[in-house]
Structures are given as C-alpha cells and as structure tokens.
Amino acid sequence: MIELRVADTAVKEWSDQASFTADLQRAFRDDAWRNIVPGFPALVLRCTSRLANAVASGTILASTLVRTRLVKDWLPVLIVCKDNVSPMLSSHKSLYTELEDTFLSIISTLPLSDAQGLLQQCLSFSTRSVEDCPHLVTAFNTWFRRAARSPLPENNS
C-alpha cells in the first residue's frame, strides 16, 4: 500500500470505522458467528496491526485525530478478541501482544488527556503480573513522566 501511495488513505479510512468496530465487537462475542468464520478475527487484527505499525514507525504520517481514532476504535476490538476468541493460539497471542505494543507506542505520541483515557482501557492487557506486560509498564511510565513535566511557557511574540 505504501508503494501504491494509498496507505495514508487506508489509515484514515480504517481509523474512521466506529460503527464497523462496534459491529465487530458484537460479532466476536457471539459463539455462533465465531464458529462460522473462525479465522476472521485474526485477519482483521493482522490488517489493523500492519496499518498501526506503519503509523507507529512513522512510515505513514497520520494526524493526531487519525492516530487517536485508530486506537480508540480498534483497541476495544483487540480486547474483545483477546477475551473471547478461543482457543488462544500462540500465533494469536503474539499478534495480540504486537498490536498491544503498537497501540501503546501510538498512545505515547498523543496529547496527555487522550493518552490517559486510552491507557486506562489498556489495563486489561495485564494478565497476571507486571512481568507479563513490560510494554504496558513502559507506556505508563512514559505517560507519568510527560504528565509530571510542567507545561512549556508560550512565546508572546
């Protein structure tokens, strides 16, 4: 997509899917639906992961609004998949962890108020102990450091 110069548009469209992601969450919670198309959640998350990785790495330059929407709309889908899609295959577990890490990287670039709300949703990443989620600990440490800094004075030119 990057070579075809459609990646920027794809990220904008993917981040503007609030109603679609709400429908996906309902579908992924439904046992009957999950049995009909068992590989679909992983496919959706792989697509999301590729776009989010490109945004997090700077390959795709996305506005603050697009980055916020991308995480805000797709983070709940990740959480539902992680909680409801079974069995938890090792390939899915690595996909979930990679997408969690990518979302946390994007969150660390957002304004503090947006980051705070999204980080609270990320608390579900922690399964048993701090050792399970070093990427979550790093994201919270980054947020606390940023929040503790005094605001920069504005230039009155």
Automatic annotation (TrEMBL):
The keyword Transport does not apply. Keywords: Ubl conjugation pathway. It holds the Pfam family BTB-POZ_ANK-like. GO terms for biological process: protein ubiquitination. Pathway: Protein modification; protein ubiquitination. It comes from the Eukaryota. Residues 46-147 form the At3g05675-like ankyrin-like domain. May act as a substrate-specific adapter of an E3 ubiquitin-protein ligase complex (CUL3-RBX1-BTB) which mediates the ubiquitination and subsequent proteasomal degradation of target proteins. This is At3g05675-like ankyrin-like domain-containing protein. The lineage of its organism: Eukaryota, Viridiplantae, Streptophyta, Embryophyta, Tracheophyta.
